[in-house]
Predict the 3D structure of the following.
Amino acid sequence: MVTATEALFAPLGREPLKQRLCLWHTPTDAAPQRLVVHVHGFGEDLNKSRRMAAMQARALADAGSAVLRFDLLGCGDSDGEFSDATLDDWIADTVAACQWALAQHAARWPQAQRPECWLWGHRAGCLLAQAAAAQLPGPWHFLFWQPTPAGKTVLQQFLRLDMAAAKLTGAADKASAKSLLAAGTTVSVAGYEITPALAAGLEAARLQPPAAQQPPLRLEWLDVSPQPDATPPAATQAVLDAWRAAGCAVGYRKVIGPMFWQTTEIADAPALIQGTLEAIRSPTRVAAGA
């Protein structure tokens, strides 16, 4: 299939910081039957994962999907600084990106039916995807890469970088980033300015199942592991069970590969790309009794 990639700035946010860098991957010889909007991870996850996200987006476009990748407010090449953003701002960006992608589909392929819509989140981006879907006319299905069930965990892991840096520089007695945030002070961690408002939003975020809809929503969850083990961790299984109980059709896959979002050098996980294609193509049914 012939595909194209367009890079552009779209006015997805509010003035004066409204422009968001967008990368729009589409098939050019037929109307796409799927529309996929990618929501990137937190902090350095974005930079470490750009190559994998681009490879996956092109693979999805080759398989007949239209894919939108975009940088959130204050991230990458979009308007603003990291300190300008709250979690609610990023959720609003995600909603606007989905609306923009649907409008583009309708304008470019006016004779086509509404495509099958997917929100593809990576790590903390899964929290944003789930929250955004609640504000969108459905159905929007979910494609999750290594989701973090609680934003609190994302914040704790990130603030550990500050603790590690303090030990290396001999400043272990300085006030912790966590205590400074609790006191209402913005902190700088690994080059990122974290405001109390952003920290509070992350603390409260949970990966909760949406209300049951008909037809059932799909959740395709993919984890990456260096070891060949298909069993999800207990915390993951609890979330999967909760989504099934809410009426969602849930699929889980674990693929072998490096955790590319945290490797020192840029790394590829080819099995994740193939596993994602297989997951999104293969309908997952609601389990009996769900």
Remarks:
- The chain is about 35% helix and 20% strand.
- Residues 87-108 form the longest helix (22 residues).
- Residues 153-204 form one domain.
